[in-house]
Write a structure and sequence with these properties.
The chain contains no helices and 7 strands. The protein has a domain of about 45 residues. It is an all-beta fold. A hairpin with a 2-residue loop joins strand 3 and strand 4.
């Protein structure tokens, strides 16, 4: 596996083009939001969170349990 979470798309097997839903802090600005300005670089992802795979466009919804 080529990524830190050892994830791959369940449909096509791709390991390099995975987008995940993560929780992070952002600062609200006049231009929108800025994650770098928030002063808190923490972010959180769990295997239950939603994920998308850009190569085959498969989307896995969030798992509640």
């Amino acid at each position: 596996m080529s990524n830190f979470f050892e994830m791959k798309c369940p449909k096509c097997g791709d390991e390099d083009h995975i987008d995940i839903v993560a929780t992070l802090w952002v600062r609200v600005t006049n231009e929108g939001t800025d994650a770098d300005a928030s002063g808190d670089s923490d972010h959180e992802y769990t295997p239950r969170d939603a994920a998308g795979y850009s190569v085959c466009r498969y989307n896995r919804p969030s798992r509640i349990s």
